[in-house]
Design goal:
5-stranded mixed sheet, 9 helices, 2 domains, alpha/beta, Nucleotidyltransferase, domain 5
Length: 311
């Protein structure tokens, strides 16, 4: 399955890969345009994973009308943690790629520099460069997908922990009924505000996990659908209150598949932020890059100096 093509521009082509727990997206960025995109299922088997990732690169480069020899670099955003050596350490949501030398494998296969970072950091870089976060001095991106990704970009640079690695802020403790997470907490943001959490709420209330159907029902005024999304908005808002207290962003961008329902959960989210006294409420926006934010940001992270146009 592939995305629409945009007109190519000058510049060294760079591939960006966003490896998610369910699906992965690959793009070719040239200059300031995405010239090809591709989506595929994330492999669950380590024996198939490295060949699958290499195949994504080959497919998207071919779709862009390019030769592999024209490729300048490859960037990867992966559902973390990603350790200091660039190895994914996430057996819970990326079992097929955990512990594998993805960077070394792609470097050997394609002969270009390869970099890897947390997928939330990649999405934040993408939104800050080309998306809804442009112009923000302190941008926080909250990705509501299979899990919950959190990243902060300050003055164009991703915020890091004291050890130089990406903080796993999607696992901060929030209010809610106990729901044991693989992180060890009884109730964390990933368990209350992920897409999976919203789907669980919808299934319990309506018997369906289809978010497009849920969103459509809310648009038509269905009371149950609106109640589900209001509860979800409160949950996301609880997390944003904590994150805003800690990071004091001026802009928050919501990304991930659950963000499509923002029109119906945004009021409840804003209500939680309005009651916050620990920081000013940020400007909350929805991604303008859709599901490609992480892949676009990964390309930006990997791009040779001057090869991609600035926003």
């Amino acid at each position: 399955m592939t995305g629409p093509l945009l007109p190519p521009t000058t510049g060294v082509p760079v591939v960006g890969i966003d490896i998610g727990g369910t699906a992965s997206r690959t793009v070719v960025v040239r200059g300031d345009e995405v010239v090809a995109s591709h989506i595929d299922s994330t492999p669950a088997s380590p024996s198939l994973a490295l060949d699958a990732v290499a195949g994504w690169v080959e497919h998207v480069v071919e779709r862009a009308g390019l030769e592999l020899g024209e490729l300048g670099a490859i960037g990867i955003g992966a559902s973390g943690p990603v350790d200091a050596g660039g190895v994914i350490r996430n057996p819970d949501t990326l079992p097929g790629l955990t512990g594998l030398d993805v960077v070394g494998s792609l470097t050997n296969t394609f002969g270009v520099p390869v970099v890897i970072d947390n997928d939330a950091a990649a999405a934040a870089i993408g939104e800050h460069w080309k998306g809804a976060g442009r112009g923000a001095s302190a941008l926080l991106v909250l990705t509501l997908g299979t899990g919950v990704g959190v990243a902060v970009v300050r003055q164009g640079r991703p915020f890091r922990g004291g050890d130089g690695l990406h903080p796993e802020a999607g696992h901060l403790t929030v209010p809610g009924a106990p729901a044991l997470c693989y992180c060890g907490r009884q109730t964390c943001l990933e368990q209350t505000a992920s897409r999976a959490s919203l789907q669980n709420l919808a299934e319990q209330a309506r018997g369906s996990t289809d978010l497009r159907e849920l969103n459509a029902a809310a648009t038509e005024g269905e009371a149950v659908a609106l109640e589900v999304l209001t509860e979800y908005g409160r949950r996301v808002g609880d997390g944003l209150v904590e994150l805003s207290t800690q990071h004091r962003p001026d802009v928050v961008v919501l990304a991930g598949s659950a963000a499509q329902c923002f029109a119906h959960f945004g009021a409840a989210l804003q209500g939680q932020l309005a009651a916050m006294t620990s920081a000013d409420a940020p400007d909350v926006r929805v991604t303008s890059l859709g599901d490609l934010a992480g892949a676009i940001g990964a390309a930006r992270l990997a791009a040779p100096a001057g090869s991609l146009a600035c926003a």
